[in-house]
């Protein structure tokens, strides 16, 4: 149980080994993935890792982490996926799956318990992610869980993602392009282990599960409406990125329009929250749109039609592309159109959004340049774009959220909201969103906490600041009960901090400079309703963060 499968695609060799003690210090998930990357620093390597809680019958414990060097940023990246893939990998007996090297022709990986095979995938190459999943399930039979790439990954779109279950993704930073370069079309996994048998104290685990599941009513809003309800709050506070970061509010009833499309809920394995919403439009169905997709193709592109956003969501899922980066690069093109740098593109053109998504996935025409991401496209045009370390930002404008401004700058994977979730205390008022006070220390504690929970791996909704039902002491007790350990909260945070520092170490080896921990000038110079980021306050927070981290 909890072995590591190492697949060398260049040699077409499979080796299964036990995890080493120094690897187990980082527990699983992204910690283990970072450890493997640090030991084997190469671009043709990706690690899929689960943790000691993965697959247990409790809400929020079915995730898997992919870690790799991002083709978009050039720095370390991790991306998490829910659904059923992680559970099945654990049931097959693996803590991690390491792919390295490059195949000379398309392949897919078939895993069933002890059996790990490299199989021909010429017949799958060229299919979208949905077609690939359907084809493999017909070929292999019931019980297999599939992670695959679409045409965007095949064509090395730098923000291509890895799809699972027609709506779950290893979403950000270009993991799909990593697999595409390695010529890996898909991974199919099936396991048979009873994971409940490995729980050290099952009686106490059952008690904790009942207690935790009983607290899920605090997530009622997410359960009923999914994440799009966040639009109401960010729009009210003027931090909803609009018309390519030129405004913080959007005069549209997008939330109401999106909710009208909902037809049913969808859940990950054993989860009672059911955060995913299936929307129906024009005779089609899509999982979503989530808040990030709604902002990226809605307000950021100036599009008011919820059905266009849903269609854009579906196309990205099929082709296998991160909706945040895709929406950002299209909105940047619209911005260039508004400034007169290009012709034929303008904010609000929903048909152009859908056409450009296809062009990006297949690298056709202007899509070939957009497929490189905002940083490279902006540099080629000689116009400033919005990104941090090469990663396009998510839907929280830092000009009204000081903690987010700092977090975007220092995050190991670039402009990111999910590795710290400091946007929540900023939005709620738990931290004054206009002042630098306590932002750095709060950010570090949150990063360390999630550094640990992403090793276990626990869904972010269950541990969200202020509203999540699981708190620091709950996470530690759950870990101890399952593993038989006796960890304390401060020890947990220390381990999480070492995970963050390990990512930092990898980035330094990849060429990270201190000036890379900064925001684009756009945020200091172009005002929204909340003004601009105060440079002096920002640099004070940055200095404090560095000192608290011990990075200077």
User: What's the shape?
Assistant: globular
Helix coverage percent: 40-55%
Structural class: alpha+beta
What would CATH call the class of the largest domain?
Alpha Beta
Beta strands, count: 15
Spatial order of strands in the largest sheet: 2-1-6-3-4-5
Query: Per CATH, which architecture of the largest domain?
Result: 4-Layer Sandwich
**Number of structurally distinct domains:** 3
CATH superfamily of the largest domain: Aldehyde ferredoxin oxidoreductase, N-terminal domain
CATH-defined fold name of the largest domain: Aldehyde Ferredoxin Oxidoreductase,  A, domain 1
Radius of gyration: 22 Å
Largest sheet: 6 strands, mixed
Mean pLDDT: 97
Number of helices: 23
Q: What's the end-to-end separation, in Å?
A: 42 Å
Weakly predicted, low-confidence segments: none
Describe this structure in words.
With 552 residues, this protein is an alpha+beta fold. The chain folds into 3 domains: 3-198, Aldehyde ferredoxin oxidoreductase, N-terminal domain (Aldehyde Ferredoxin Oxidoreductase,  A, domain 1); 223-381, Aldehyde Ferredoxin Oxidoreductase Protein, subunit A, domain 2; 398-549, Aldehyde Ferredoxin Oxidoreductase Protein, subunit A, domain 3, CATH 1.10.599.10. The protein has 23 helices and 15 strands. Strand 1 (3-8) and strand 2 (13-17) form a beta hairpin. It is globular.
């Amino acid at each position: 149980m909890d072995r590591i499968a190492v697949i060398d695609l260049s040699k077409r060799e499979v080796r299964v080994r036990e995890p080493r003690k120094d690897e187990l210090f980082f527990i699983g998930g992204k910690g283990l993935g970072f450890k493997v990357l640090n030991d084997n620093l190469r671009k043709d390597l990706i690690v899929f890792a689960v943790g000691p809680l993965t697959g247990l019958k409790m809400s929020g414990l079915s995730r898997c982490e992919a870690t790799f060097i991002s083709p978009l940023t050039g720095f370390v990246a991790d991306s998490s996926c829910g659904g059923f893939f992680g559970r099945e990998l654990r049931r097959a007996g693996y803590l991690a799956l390491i792919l390295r090297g490059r195949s000379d022709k398309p392949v897919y990986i078939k895993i069933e318990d002890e059996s790990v095979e490299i199989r021909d995938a010429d017949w799958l190459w060229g299919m979208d992610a949905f077609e690939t999943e359907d084809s493999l399930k017909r070929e292999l039979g019931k019980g297999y869980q599939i992670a695959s790439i679409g045409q965007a990954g095949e064509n090395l779109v730098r923000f291509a993602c890895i799809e699972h279950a027609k709506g779950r993704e290893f979403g950000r930073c270009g993991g799909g392009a990593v697999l595409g370069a390695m010529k890996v079309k898909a991974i199919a996994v099936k396991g048979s282990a009873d994971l409940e048998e490995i729980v050290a104290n099952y009686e106490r685990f059952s008690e904790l599960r009942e207690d935790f599941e009983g607290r899920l009513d605090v997530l009622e809003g997410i359960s009923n409406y999914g994440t799009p309800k966040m639009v109401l709050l960010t729009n009210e506070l003027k931090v909803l990125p609009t018309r390519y970061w030129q405004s913080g509010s959007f005069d549209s009833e997008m939330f109401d329009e999106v909710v009208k499309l909902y037809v049913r809920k969808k859940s990950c394995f054993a989860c009672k929250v059911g955060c995913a919403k299936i929307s129906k439009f024009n005779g089609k169905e899509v999982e979503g749109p989530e808040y990030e997709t709604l902002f990226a193709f809605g307000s950021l592109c100036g599009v008011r039609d919820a059905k266009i956003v849903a269609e854009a969501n579906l196309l990205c899922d099929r082709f296998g592309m991160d909706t945040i980066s895709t929406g950002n690069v299209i909105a940047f093109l619209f911005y260039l159109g508004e400034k007169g740098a290009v012709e034929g593109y303008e904010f609000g053109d929903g048909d152009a959004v859908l056409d450009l998504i296809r062009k990006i996935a297949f690298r056709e025409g202007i899509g070939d340049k957009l497929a490189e991401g905002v940083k490279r496209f902006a540099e080629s045009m000689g116009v400033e774009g919005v990104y941090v370390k090469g990663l396009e930002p998510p839907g929280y404008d830092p000009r009204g959220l000081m903690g987010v401004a700092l977090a975007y700058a220092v995050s190991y994977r670039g402009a990111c909201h999910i590795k710290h979730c400091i946007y929540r205390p900023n939005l709620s008022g738990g931290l004054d969103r206009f002042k630098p006070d306590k932002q750095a220390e709060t950010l570090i504690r949150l990063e360390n906490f999630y550094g640990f929970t992403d090793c276990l791996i626990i869904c972010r909704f269950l541990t969200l600041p202020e509203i999540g039902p699981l708190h620091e002491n709950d996470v530690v007790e759950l870990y101890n009960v399952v593993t038989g350990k006796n960890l304390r909260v401060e020890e947990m945070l220390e381990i999480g901090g070492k995970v963050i520092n390990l990512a930092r170490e990898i980035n330094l080896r990849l060429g990270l400079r201190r000036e890379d921990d900064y925001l684009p000038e756009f945020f200091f110079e172009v005002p929204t309703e909340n003004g601009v980021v105060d440079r002096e306050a920002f640099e004070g927070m940055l200095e404090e963060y560095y000192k608290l981290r011990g990075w200077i």
